[in-house]
């Protein structure tokens, strides 16, 4: 056996308590992605566009040239904006930007799950808010054939600040042949069971069944094959009955066990999403 | 690496063309299972699979109803009848018969000529990494027709009989790997390569008979591949480092009203 490729990339986890100003999030991301990180997992901060206080982060360039950028901008003390672009410069979260809130004083805990191919900010409000994006793992296909798959959540908030599309089933992806990224509930995600909404990710004996979070493309046609988009890095689907913030030990290979923590993306396909925070 | 458990059981494959009487199918099935496969014929027409080290087995009673009608009763080791199903083949054509068997699976797939394939299926599920006997819902089965010879959709792609709660029932329970839209099931990679899926099965544990299904196990020696392939086509699928297996696409049909996103293929070599 071997650790699957999508779980065998670098990952880092950080948690900051009582965040009352989203500038702390930008500063934390800079620490996580750049200051405390070294090559080949080192992100860089590109200079343009210059927005005062913003973080302009570029992921490490993969061997096929794929990367993604995340521009993080403070809208107000409690509201943050994310703009994600792929390595072609196309806007991934194609709704101008996606926003995330923290609570007013005394604030709330913010968690960061990051790596060269994934970027997650999880705001542990009373109603949790989570923004995530990344590049999918398409192995066993070659990295460069035919193109990287970049994804981003459509929520937790629209560019108007409205809490919407908080589920991980609402992703932005680029459909083959399309000229811009689009989103739709369940359009780019893959569930298990006969339908996308009639199973629990447990065995008949009640043992949890962590499974890869996979992407597929809504094609709008039943006369041609639809396309598989790969797996999210360092993420697993878990049974939707599990609580936000709960942590699970997932055997990855022989003695290697990963610790995954459920983030604030609401369930889709009767599953919630958990990202890796540690290895036992 | 190592091959997944559900691909590590025994398997055999036999085909015969120009068949016109189901007795020939029964005779061939007996030859494949009893003569060559380590099964036993408990009584006339009743075939029992080899028990594993946890004494899991299933038996199949094959009954010739007429020259064109074959009935198949599947039971688990506790004597519970999982299903009784039939195929009904035309008298105006001869048929090609494909028989796939092993310790944990048995499938009779019949191409009747101009009409749609008719199929009988049964087997034991792979429950790994849990203990293989950790629950008693591991025998499945189905067939194209009811005992009234009706094509009732209980023999289609997603539907199998399995013990739900404490009673065998037909239900759509095979993973479709679908998104919220009915056309995003991800059957090809962006490079055009086929995606091969495990034929995994879901059901209700004891004490539950409705709501959300839970994972029951995987069908041995079977995979799913996209519904755009031709029935009867054969594919080499890498199953371990340096090891490929050959699978043949069966005629197991799609759920009524759905496009056939996935075809079921069974290992032949």
Weakly predicted, low-confidence segments of chain A: none
Order of helices and strands of chain B: EHEEEEEEEEEEEEEEEEE
What is the residue-mean pLDDT of chain B, rounded to a whole number?
A: 94
What percent of residues of chain B adopt helix (DSSP H or I)?
Answer: under 10%
What is the strand content of chain A? 35-45%
Rg measurement of chain A, Å: 18 Å
Q: Residue share in helices of chain A?
A: under 10%
Principal-axis shape of chain B: globular
List the uncertain runs of chain B: none
Mean pLDDT of chain A: 93
Number of helices of chain A: 1
Largest sheet of chain A: 7 strands, antiparallel
Q: What class do helices, strands and sheet pairing of chain B give?
A: mainly beta
Give the helix tally of chain B. Answer: 1
- Number of E-type strands of chain B: 18
% residues in beta strands of chain B? 35-45%
The interface involving the most residues is between: A-B, 53 and 43 residues
> How many domains, in number, for the residues of chain B?
1
Structural class of the secondary structure composition of chain A? mainly beta
Radius of gyration of chain B: 17 Å
Give a verbal description of the structure:
The complex is a heterodimer of chains A (about 280) and B (about 270). By secondary structure, chain A is mainly beta. Chain A has one domain (about 5-195, about 215-235). Helices cover about 5% and strands about 40% of the residues of chain A. Chain A has one helix at about 25-35, and strands at about 10-20, 45, 55-60, 70-75, 80-85, 100, 110-115, 120-125, 130-135, 150-155, 170-175, 180-185, 200-205, 210-215, 225-240, 245-255, 255-260, 270-280. In chain A, the strands form three sheets. A seven-stranded antiparallel sheet of chain A has the order 1-7-8-9-10-11-12, with helices on one face. A five-stranded antiparallel sheet of chain A has the order 2-3-4-5-6, covered by helices on one side. A five-stranded antiparallel sheet of chain A has the order 14-15-18-17-16, with no helix packed on it. In chain A, strand 17 and strand 18 (about 270-280) form a beta hairpin. The mean pLDDT of chain A is about 95. With about 270 residues, chain B is mainly beta. Chain B has one domain (about 5-175, about 200-225). Helix content of chain B is about 5%, strand content about 45%. Chain B has one helix at about 20-35, and strands spanning about 10-20, 40-45, 45-50, 60-65, 70-75, 80-90, 95-100, 105-110, 120-125, 140-145, 160-165, 165-170, 190, 195-205, 215-225, 235-240, 245-250, 260-265. In chain B, the strands form three sheets. In chain B, strands 1, 7, 8, 9, 10, 14, 15, 16, 17 and 18 form a ten-stranded antiparallel sheet that branches. A five-stranded antiparallel sheet of chain B has the order 2-3-4-5-6, with helices on one face. Chain B has a two-stranded antiparallel ribbon with strand order 11-12. Chain B starts with 11 loop residues before the first strand and ends with a strand. The model of chain B has no long low-confidence stretch (mean pLDDT about 95). Classes of the chains: A mainly beta (about 280), B mainly beta (about 270). At the A-B interface, strand 13, strand 14 and strand 15 of A face strand 13, strand 14 and strand 15 of B. Strand 15 of chain A pairs parallel with strand 13 (about 190) of chain B.
């Amino acid at each position: 056996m071997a650790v699957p490729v999508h779980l065998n990339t670098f990952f880092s986890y950080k948690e900051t308590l009582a965040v009352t100003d989203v500038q702390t999030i930008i500063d934390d991301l800079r620490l996580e992605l750049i200051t405390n990180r070294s090559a080949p997992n080192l992100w860089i901060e590109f200079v343009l566009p210059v927005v005062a206080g913003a973080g302009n982060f570029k992921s490490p360039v993969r061997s096929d040239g794929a990367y993604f950028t995340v521009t993080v901008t403070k809208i107000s003390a409690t509201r943050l904006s994310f703009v994600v672009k792929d390595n072609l410069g196309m806007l991934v979260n194609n709704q101008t930007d996606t926003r995330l809130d923290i609570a007013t004083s005394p604030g709330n805990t913010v968690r960061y799950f990051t790596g060269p191919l994934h970027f997650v900010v999880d705001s542990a409000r009373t109603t949790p808010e989570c923004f995530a994006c990344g590049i999918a793992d398409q192995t066993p296909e070659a990295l460069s054939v035919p193109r990287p798959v970049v994804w981003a959540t459509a929520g937790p908030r629209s560019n108007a600040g409205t809490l919407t599309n908080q589920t991980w089933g609402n992703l932005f992806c680029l459909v083959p042949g399309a000229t811009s990224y689009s989103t739709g509930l369940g359009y780019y995600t893959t569930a298990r069971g006969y339908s996308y909404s009639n199973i629990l990710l447990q065995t008949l004996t009640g043992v949890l069944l962590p499974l890869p979070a996979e992407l597929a493309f809504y094609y709008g046609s039943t006369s041609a094959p639809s396309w598989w988009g790969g797996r999210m890095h360092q993420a697993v689907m878990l049974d939707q009955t599990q609580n936000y913030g709960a942590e699970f030990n997932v055997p990855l290979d022989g003695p290697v066990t990963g610790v995954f923590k459920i983030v604030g993306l609401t369930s889709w396909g009767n599953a919630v999403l958990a990202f890796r925070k540690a290895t036992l | 690496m190592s091959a997944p458990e559900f691909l590590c059981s025994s398997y055999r494959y036999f085909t015969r063309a120009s068949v016109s009487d189901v007795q020939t199918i029964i005779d061939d099935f007996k030859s494949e299972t009893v003569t060559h496969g380590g099964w036993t014929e408990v009584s006339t027409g009743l075939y029992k699979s080899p028990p594993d080290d946890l004494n899991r087995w299933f038996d199949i009673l094959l009954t010739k109803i007429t020259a064109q009608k074959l009935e198949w009763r599947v039971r688990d080791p506790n004597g519970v009848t999982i299903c009784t199903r039939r195929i009904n083949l035309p008298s105006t054509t001869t048929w090609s018969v494909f028989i796939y068997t092993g310790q944990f699976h048995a499938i009779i797939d019949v191409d009747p000529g101009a009409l749609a394939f008719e199929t009988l299926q049964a087997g034991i599920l792979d429950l790994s990494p849990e203990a293989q006997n950790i629950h008693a819902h591991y025998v499945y089965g189905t067939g194209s027709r009811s005992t009234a010879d009706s094509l009732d959709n209980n023999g289609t792609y997603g539907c199998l009989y399995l013990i739900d709660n404490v009673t065998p029932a037909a239900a759509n329970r095979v993973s479709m790997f679908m998104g919220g839209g009915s056309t995003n099931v991800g059957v090809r990679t962006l490079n055009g390569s086929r995606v091969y899926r495990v034929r995994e099965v879901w059901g209700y544990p004891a004490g539950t008979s409705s709501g959300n299904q839970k994972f029951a196990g995987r069908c041995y020696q079977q995979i799913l591949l996209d519904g755009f392939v031709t029935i009867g086509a054969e594919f080499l699928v890498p199953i371990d480092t340096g090891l490929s297996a050959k699978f043949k696409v069966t005629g197991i049909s799609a759920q009524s009203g759905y496009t056939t996103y996935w075809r079921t293929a069974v290992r032949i070599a």
